[in-house]
Amino acid sequence: MSGTQQFDFAVDLMRSILWQYDGAPRAVALARNDQTWIDSHHSDFWRSWHRDVFDLDTATEFGLSVWARILGVSLEIGAPRRVEGVFGFGTNNANFENGNFGRARDGQVSLDVESARKLLKLRWFQLTMRPTAPNINRALESVFGMGSASVFDNYDMTTTTVMFTSAPDYRLRRLLENTDILPRPSTVGLEWAVQARPAWGFGPNHLNFENGNFGA
Predict the structure, then answer these.
(1) Domain total for the chain?
(2) Which residues have C-beta within 8 Å of that of residue 64, sequence separation ≥ 6?
């Protein structure tokens, strides 16, 4: 993720030439040839590895699958049987090959790359972060973007609510409904909701007279 440790991938092979071999032109030429190859391939390889695997913000599908094994999460979500309300023709929703576009049995649906990235980043925060309200808000900002989601604590250790400022698309909704991945304190329940408009009230949390707000 952004802020990951930066590495210097440069390798100086000429340091391996001991002083007594400075006058050996063939040994020096071999080292220089190897240095030329290292300069053009070695650094590029590790920069690509850092971008495509190490950094969760930029990791490719392969890199995300590596992180999934490290963090112990699956990049597949269970999909229940669905034979009603699907597209087709006639009473049995038959299509051109006399089937339909539903699922006849329970199965697994693989997450798309960006949903997998969100899942893994949230899991990383679960494992590495103290689940205080400020920390959770920083995690939500990192995963969903500034102003997209925030947590509200009711101060009685029963539930916390993650409020989204816009309705999640079907990919994010599937993730939220099928995983317990949003960061929260241990044993404290969690809900999520959508508040598309700012609520009226006072102060940073829009509090009113009974410490709630006038949002629905």
Answers:
(1) 3
(2) 56, 75, 113, 116, 117, 120
